[in-house]
C-alpha cells in the first residue's frame, strides 16, 4: 500500500498509487506521490513517466474521512499536498502518461488534467464531485479535458463523463479494455521514450510555456473558495453527510 516506483523498461518509470479500498489519498499520500513523480523526472535515464494505480479505480480524490476526523488542519494539508502533486505532474521534466481505470474523481482529475497524455480503460469515468464533498477545485484541470460548457455542467451536477466521451473530445489518447490498459500505456510511453532525451525535456518545457492558462495559479485561486466554504461552515456541513447516501 502507498506509492511505488518501478522501472518498466529502458527510459520508462511507472509511478503506481495503491491506497485501498478506493485510492482516496490521505495528505501523506499526495505528498508521497509528488515526491515520486519529481524523483522520476530528475533521473537522467528517464524519458517518460507512466502514472498508474492499483485497484478498482484510478483515484477517488482526497480522503474525506481524514478531513472529517482531523478538521481544518487536514483540509489545509490536503489542499497544499494536492497542489504539490498536481504541480509535480505538470512540471515533471519529461512527459507523463496517465493510465486510468475505473473512477477518476476530484483529485484524480487534477492529476490526469496535468498529464501530457491519457490512456483509459473502457470502464473509466471522469468527474469532479466537489460540490457533494463540501469543497471546490480541479475545474482548472477538468477544463483541460472537456469544452467549457460541458465542464460547467459536469461541475455543477457532479456527474461523470466516460472515457469514450473524453476520447471524442480529443483529451484521451486511446480507450482500451481494462486488461490491456497497462500494455497500451507502456506502448505510448515506449514510443515517447524512443525520442532524444534532451529534446524531450526541451519539448516539455516549451509546451508548458505556451499553455494559455497558468494551472498552478488557477488551481490555487479555486482553493481560496474551498477555504471560504470552510470558514463559512458550509464545507463541514456538506461533508458531514458524506457517505450517508442521502441529500446533503
Automatic annotation (TrEMBL):
The keyword Lyase applies. It holds the Pfam family ECH_1. Keywords: Lipid metabolism, Lyase. Coiled coil: none annotated. InterPro entries: ClpP/crotonase-like_dom_sf, Enoyl-CoA_hydra/iso. Gene3D superfamilies: 2-enoyl-CoA Hydratase, Chain A, domain 1. Belongs to the enoyl-CoA hydratase/isomerase family. This is Enoyl-CoA hydratase family protein. It comes from Streptomyces dubilierae. The lineage of its organism: Bacteria, Bacillati, Actinomycetota, Actinomycetes, Kitasatosporales.
Amino acid at each position: 500500500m502507498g506509492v511505488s516506483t518501478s522501472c518498466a523498461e529502458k527510459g520508462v518509470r511507472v509511478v503506481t498509487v495503491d491506497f485501498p479500498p478506493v485510492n482516496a489519498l490521505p495528505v501523506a499520500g499526495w505528498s508521497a506521490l509528488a515526491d515520486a513523480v519529481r524523483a522520476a523526472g530528475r533521473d537522467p535515464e528517464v524519458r517518460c513517466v507512466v502514472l498508474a494505480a492499483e485497484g478498482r479505480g484510478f483515484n477517488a480524490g482526497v480522503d474525506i474521512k481524514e478531513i472529517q476526523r482531523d478538521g481544518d488542519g487536514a483540509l489545509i494539508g490536503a489542499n497544499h499536498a494536492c497542489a504539490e502533486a498536481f504541480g509535480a505532474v505538470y512540471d515533471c521534466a519529461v512527459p507523463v502518461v496517465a493510465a486510468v481505470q475505473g473512477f477518476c474523481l476530484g483529485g484524480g482529475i487534477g492529476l490526469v488534467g496535468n498529464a501530457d497524455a491519457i490512456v483509459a480503460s473502457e470502464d473509466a469515468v471522469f468527474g469532479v464531485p466537489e460540490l457533494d464533498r463540501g469543497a471546490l477545485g480541479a475545474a482548472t484541470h477538468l477544463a483541460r479535458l472537456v469544452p467549457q460548457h460541458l465542464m460547467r455542467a459536469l461541475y455543477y451536477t457532479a456527474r461523470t463523463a466516460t472515457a469514450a466521451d473524453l476520447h471524442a473530445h480529443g483529451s484521451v489518447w486511446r480507450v482500451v479494455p481494462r486488461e490491456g490498459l497497462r500494455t497500451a500505456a507502456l506502448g505510448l510511453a515506449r514510443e515517447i521514450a524512443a525520442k532524444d532525451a534532451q529534446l524531450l525535456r526541451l519539448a516539455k518545457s516549451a509546451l508548458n510555456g505556451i499553455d494559455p492558462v497558468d494551472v498552478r495559479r488557477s488551481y490555487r485561486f479555486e482553493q481560496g473558495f474551498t477555504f471560504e466554504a470552510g470558514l463559512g461552515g458550509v464545507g463541514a456541513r456538506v461533508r458531514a453527510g458524506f457517505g450517508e447516501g442521502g441529500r446533503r
